[in-house]
Design goal:
single chain; 330 residues; alpha+beta; Tumour Suppressor Smad4; 2 domains; two-stranded antiparallel sheet; 30% helix; Lipid_Phosphate_FormReg
């Protein structure tokens, strides 16, 4: 859903990760797009190891910026969005790095710098949900983080923690495949307690449980095809394969059924005819709030970045609390 057409900002802030982007190329492309859009002042702010973008975003807002452009990977985008939550300013994306998860789900290009800059200044504005994760870490301390795409507990978090930085820089998201193969043999199922919307608790032994604000992953993988980014709901994917065959069934489901068959009326009629009587490898749930608990501290991830080990997390949604620039007319 598009909320309104673009307005020209008087001041735009560019918050960039110097490790992820070629700042000279970005500077030229942004300046050209800003000149085409009108008389716009630009404020350039660099992220640091100890501040991924939250502090820079607050500084930009205090300076009067009504457009904040995040130039970097998923971590930079998540940090900037966290500080923009509920503010009267818009987020634009110049994707870089490994996943570009939010950009992929919004249709913002991650292959053309000039096009991404054009969307930043001339695209439409869409109000989207922002997820909130209130975490109890291994020491019992509480902390809250925002997320845009998904939170994960189990093998996906172990895989992200296991990803080799050198491969990540060279191969992008394919580095996670290497990490997955290395994590899989050592990863046991996790006993997870979960409750939706404050209701009765359940337990499950899972390989991973993912709580999503939107459902598309790199490689055109539609993990959770019904997830919408502005519906005020969280979509949960519970993965419980018992064997390698179970993993293959999950792969078939997300790449063939979700990506291909669901796209047509004929395909939707075919799906029930090919289903097995019981499909427990991948279960979908939905709720406005989700609470997850584990007996022993387990790795946890948000938007593809590791966030240490946790014992519990309460997840919720701040509906339509973030304004994001998207391609015009999309």
């Amino acid at each position: 859903m598009i909320d309104r057409a673009s307005t020209t900002p008087a001041l735009a802030a560019i918050i960039y990760n110097p490790i992820k982007v070629d700042i000279d190329r970005v500077r030229i492309a942004v300046q050209d797009a800003a000149a085409r859009a009108g008389d716009i002042d630009l404020l350039w702010l660099e992220t640091r190891v100890d501040d991924e973008g939250q502090g820079q975003t607050r500084h930009a807002l205090e300076a009067g910026a009504t457009l904040v452009i995040a130039a970097g990977g998923d971590g930079t985008v998540r940090a900037v969005a966290e500080a923009l939550r509920g503010q009267d300013a818009e987020l634009a994306l110049i994707p870089s790095g490994t996943g570009n998860l939010l950009a992929r789900n919004l249709g913002v290009t991650h292959t053309s710098l000039d096009e991404a800059c054009s969307i930043a200044f001339s695209g439409d504005t869409r109000a989207i949900d922002i997820g909130l994760a209130r975490v109890t870490d291994a020491d019992g301390d509480l902390r809250e983080h925002a997320f845009l795409v998904m939170a994960g507990l189990g093998i996906d978090a172990a895989m992200i923690a296991n990803t080799r930085p050198v491969l990540k820089r060279r191969l992008g998201w394919l580095a996670y495949v290497d990490a997955g193969f290395r994590a899989l043999p050592r990863t046991k199922k996790v006993r997870v307690g979960y409750a939706l919307d404050g209701g009765e608790g359940n337990t499950a032994h899972v390989s991973t449980i993912l709580v999503a604000n939107c459902g598309n992953l790199p490689g055109n993988i539609e993990l959770i095809p019904d997830a919408l980014i502005d519906d005020g709901m969280l979509d949960i994917a519970v993965l419980q394969p018992k064997t390698i065959f179970g993993w293959l069934m999950i792969w078939r489901r997300v790449t063939w059924e979700n990506r291909v068959l669901r796209k047509s009326a004929l395909g939707q009629r075919i799906i029930p005819m090919t289903e097995r009587p019981s499909r427990t490898e991948l279960t979908y749930l939905r709720g406005a709030t989700v609470r997850l608990t584990v007996e022993d501290a387990e790795p946890f991830e948000l938007d593809g970045d590791e966030f240490g080990e946790i014992r519990a997390v309460d997840l919720s949604v701040d509906q339509r609390a973030l304004m994001v620039k998207v391609p015009a007319g999309r």
